[in-house]
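for the recovery benchmark. tokens below, seq after
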């Protein structure tokens, strides 16, 4: 069974904290993730939101802060599941693996925020645990960073994941339009 996994696409990606800009292509990425959610539902796949809860109460990602909430246009509904994490890895000290086991999920289609942190860490962790892993190449984003702009970070990670050496279980990198075929 397949699951769409939407990582950390919370309002903090749009709320600059004074040190960083909003996420690159924020609205476009949100719209693509919303289309992916509809495709997943139509295909009978589970939809799992990964929510980052930052331990620092001053962080824009902390529970109770405006950035912690999901976007109204892309929030869990109905049978959608939410897994709460506190690190970059959605598997670390969470019930994510148990949720996948109970639901019989063996294939993960992954998108969200931030390409080089939580998305990357979770993709690598999923592939190394034996899950068939599909990166939604047009449905993940990040912010411009001090050392590099968001667009080359995203391109670099799509290329890196496509070349990830994982014998017998390569990571596939596909746009949403092809991922659910």
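predicted aa per position
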């Amino acid at each position: 069974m397949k699951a769409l996994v939407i990582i950390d696409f919370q309002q903090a990606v749009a709320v600059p904290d004074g040190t960083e800009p909003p996420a690159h292509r924020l609205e476009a990425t949100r719209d693509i993730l919303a289309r992916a959610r509809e495709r997943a539902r139509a295909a009978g796949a589970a939809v799992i939101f990964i929510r980052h809860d930052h331990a620092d109460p001053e962080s824009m990602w902390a529970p109770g802060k405006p950035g912690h909430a999901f976007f109204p246009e892309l929030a869990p509904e109905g049978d959608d599941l939410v897994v709460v994490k506190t690190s970059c890895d959605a598997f670390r000290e969470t019930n994510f693996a148990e949720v996948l086991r109970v639901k019989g999920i063996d294939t993960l289609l992954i998108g969200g925020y931030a390409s080089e942190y939580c998305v990357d860490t979770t993709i690598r962790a999923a592939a190394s645990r034996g899950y068939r892993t599909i990166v939604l190449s047009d449905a993940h984003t990040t912010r411009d960073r001090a050392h590099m702009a968001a667009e080359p970070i995203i391109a670099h990670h799509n290329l890196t994941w496509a070349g990830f050496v994982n014998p017998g279980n390569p990571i596939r990198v596909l746009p949403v339009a092809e991922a659910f075929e």
